[in-house]
């Protein structure tokens, strides 16, 4: 617990001293422009209506709400992964990974501390995004606050679960740019952020089903899409189980990945 | 002139050696654009399936035409974005301390920035090839007035892109921060240039901003020539504007380089990063 709290405080200090504005503007722009394109297409081309396939797949005709919630969720996922998965490779690049390995602190509380701090800053960023969307004229509804809370928990579990193996991968490869962007573009396609996954070809859909984020999004849809009466709890359970499995896998390969990173810097 | 050409060739070869064969090129020039293209297609699909969409925009009614419209956008965008990436790599010269050495050499500055961008573009030639093959094998997608229009489309993409690259590279003489290029010119660029939407769907002010970027007009020519059977007469206006933009960008690049070099001589800032 003390490791988690210390990491939380340290990362807040870093954030306050040197806030990564470029990342913030970049991710916010991606979210806002995705909403913008959908909105313009919806009004100028669709005439304020959507095709039957969308209504059939989602149980709702609220296309703009669907895209906005998806864009916000994508921003959440991107930002959280950037924080949590890149925590250790940043330590490595800044030369503090060795110190981290020398302390008796365990890895999981450290990563949870990073997560807690990331949650607090990401919440602010999502608020900005949703405020911009509202200013643009998107109307969002929250059918069930409890389900929304469950969706946030599910999304956090999903993101942390995916970030830990990714962190190991980045450490082992000594590279973050390609890994992270490949994950982001793949997730944007496979998880159903801005369109229902039923649009995808079968093979791509099955790949998406294996990612916990896909399931977290289903919980989020149940909380935010008016007119859907889907039971969110089975999706919640699948998300937690999948996220936990990814987390365990990640923790088990973190050790060899750290060793590999150290050997590489020792050789250099 | 022959000296400048040799500088362009040498700089292009250097950039080519640095970049090509790196996994980054394969990912950022092929895999990411393809994944993003698919995601964009599915995101706008619900709107295009609406009952009124085909009347407002004929392309919307045919998934294959919609996909080729978006693919042409993705292709041109990737072309221009590769130059943003080349400018980003140019900023590494500063970090590795070779920017100063470049400016000590008698090489023409303009030739350097053109060579730098040209290398990024030749690496994209195969991308253009992949697009052409994919479009040609998908039946009934390409509508070209006559074979000469292929050359017009390719030139309308290449020449302004080189000018754009020279302009971006010249800006980095002043700035140590290349991250702003990535941020400012990644997402907003595709938005204002009509990469994912037809221009008529954009508000007037976005269209006005978009006109300032050569990508917008390049894309009008590319789509017109390859997908809509337009000939030279139909595309005269965008081609004329593209030519003006290209000249303007080259002039701006040349002025920026001169100003930047004078400033660097005064402040000694070229090796600072």
Characteristic terms for this protein:
heterodimer; A: 268 residues; mainly alpha; 80% helix; B: 273 residues; 13 helices; 75% helix; ABC2_TM_bact-type (chain A); Transport permease protein (chain A); ABC-type transporter activity (chain A)
Structural overview:
Chain B: Keywords: Membrane, Transmembrane, Transmembrane helix. Chain B: GO terms for molecular function: ABC-type transporter activity. Chain B: This is ABC-2 type transport system permease protein. Chain B: The chain crosses the membrane at residues 24-45, 65-90, 111-136, 148-168, 189-215, 235-257. The complex is a heterodimer of chains A (268) and B (273). With 268 residues, chain A is mainly α. Chain A has helices spanning 2-17, 21-45, 52-58, 63-84, 87-94, 97-102, 107-136, 145-173, 177-190, 202-209, 212-224, 232-267. Chain A has one domain. Chain A contains twelve helices and no strands. The longest helix of chain A is centred in the C-terminal third of the chain and has 36 residues, at 232-267. Chain B contains 13 helices and no strands. Chains A and B meet through α2, α3 and α9 of A and α2, α9 and α10 of B.
Q: Which SSEs are present, and which pair or pack?
A:
The complex is a heterodimer of chains A (268) and B (273).
Chain A: H1 2-17, H2 21-45, H3 52-58, H4 63-84, H5 87-94, H6 97-102, H7 107-136, H8 145-173, H9 177-190, H10 202-209, H11 212-224, H12 232-267
Chain B: H1 2-19, H2 23-48, H3 53-56, H4 63-95, H5 98-104, H6 109-122, H7 125-137, H8 148-171, H9 179-185, H10 187-192, H11 204-211, H12 214-227, H13 236-267
Helix pairs in contact in B: 1-6, 2-4, 4-6, 4-7, 4-8, 4-9, 4-12, 6-8, 8-12, 8-13, 12-13
Membrane topology (chain A): Multi-pass membrane protein
Transmembrane segments (chain A): 21-43, 63-85, 110-136, 148-171, 183-201, 233-254
Pfam families (chain A): ABC2_membrane
